[in-house]
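Predict structure. Chain length: 181.
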Amino acid sequence: MPQTHPAMDQAASPLAAPDAPPVLSLEDRLTLVNAVMTARLDEAAVAYEVNTAHIPTEPLDLADVVTGPVDTGPAPLPEPYPTPVAALLQRAHHRLLTGGWCKDVLVDEDGARCMLGAIRAEAGGDSGLEASAVTVLLDAIRRRFGDHVDSVPSFNDAFATGRTPLRMVDQAAHLADARSL
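Prediction complete.
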């Protein structure tokens, strides 16, 4: 009588297909990847410590590494424009950059100036030169913002920060140079 082996019995029921792995959500997959990466990083940290334990080191004084900014004083004035109005507007722009900008007054208690205050300070009492610079500045402002701007002081006081007023003084200096003023 032939001996049958249950494993070889072809009449036995077919093997059931293994269950498909459960479908993981994105959160579950990210959690698994995070766990795997954390384990790898921990293993790398231990390997680094083992591999560098024989290297002698001395404590580091943070005062040798961390330093504050060096006070170099105000930025130098760039090469001045050759024409008087353009040079005046350039100096006024530099004064606003280095001395600060303000609104509602010509000069505030900290010494910061508005656009007109910077022009007046750099004009040195030359009212004709000052008037020409203010005219060019107002023209540059009106080119950019339209004819509804009444005056340089009203334009200056309309801003909370000096970014736009400073940019307009710089553009007025370029305009005066282009006009050879």
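Summary: Residues 25-56 form one domain.
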